[in-house]
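Hi everyone,

Forwarding the result from last night's run.
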Amino acid sequence: MNMTALPGKIYCLCLLFTIFTLERIHAETADQRSQYILSRLTFYYVQNPNSDSAAVRMTMVNNSKDPRDVMKLFNNGYMTKASKLLVAMLNDRQHGGDDFFQQTLSDLLKVRDVPIAIFFYNDKLPFEQFGLTHFISNVDRNGFLIPCATKDTTRGYKGYVHLGQHFLDMTEMLDLKYEFVRDIVTIQNLTEIKEDAFLVNDKYYTFGEDDEHDYNEIIPSADYAFTEGLADAFGFYSTIVTGSKPDLIGWFSPEREVKIETAVPAEKPIPGKSPDIWMYKQLNDSNIQPIRKVGNFAFYKLNQLPYHMLFHSELLIATILYFSAFDIPLQQTASFTYYNNHLRTTYRDLRPFEAFVNALARQSLPDAMQEAQLASCQDYPKKQYHLLALAYIDYFTFYKAKTKAEFSSQLRMKLEKQLVDCYWEIRDKAKATATSIDNVDPFYGTMNINLLLGIGY
């Protein structure tokens, strides 16, 4: 990073963020946000999961100006963090509410406009068999609830979020907001991922041998990298300033270390199964050597990876989506809705990330152009928002694609094939204007791309 430019970057970013924040939070009043959130979310509390036979529905006051004493709803002194999360979610600013968090939730809930149940558990003591049977079995090795979201459609809901006191107490408030938004995105996301190609010897390798992943891991399933990255982008978008979660403004760097699992189900790829289960072998065969190996992981610099493999990084996907959303105000949830609505029709043959990029391009166009097939690049608007996601994909993959065909190999732009052609006409200029990736942080690189596309700041 160019440290001499940092103060200017901070000033510009803070100014843009302030303007952008005010634009969004004034889209609805505090009362409107609160009332809509309460119309979609229903809250339940389980005081003792090891003996209570049912959850208690929490009756919330439908008035953002009421400084809710939500602790009394939990009937004990343990659920302090849960209370603070509810205050941030439902109260107005004068009474502890978080405008930006609320507006993000309101926008996201409108993507599907369906009812969701939120369950809080007092797992001060670990779950025992009774609780695992009656409520939820997603616990860690010590018996404490692992926060999760499910698309369970029982009792009239379209999804459930489960949060336990143990997790809440050890998590910073910023991270709680981040995780809560991620859970809502998971429920709202209608992506259906085909996993058959990752099933080997009765085990799915979508996330690798260990069936786990972290933010800096390159995982076998690019589709899951997209769904995780989409949730990360919205999570970061809802907080901007992070606790322990990834800082998408500062994460991207050629030197960023990422890891790939070395354990595989067989020495050589198995016909009919995804070759991406064997990504470590692909790198070895291409003579790309890791920086180091630790246990079952090999570590690489991000810019060591070949073009197609970069799309297996959830945080790279998150970075592309975050910057695209930041530069196309109020289009991120509109694109999410458009994506969901077209998954089983127009986009049924596309992979999830490809489909979402199509949706971003469509939603950036004026209404009259969104369903039109335009004749030439000159027919599109002069402010080329429709090319922004493509330009960012190219930038954040280090311009590794050598040809238009290689670039398109990860983006079969079914609806927007012409947009790839339009972007490729200006690709050399974009590459030249985005300054050297090696020594400039993405704020400046993306700003230069914006200027080239006639968008500006």
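Residues 6-25 form the longest helix (20 residues).

Cheers,
N.
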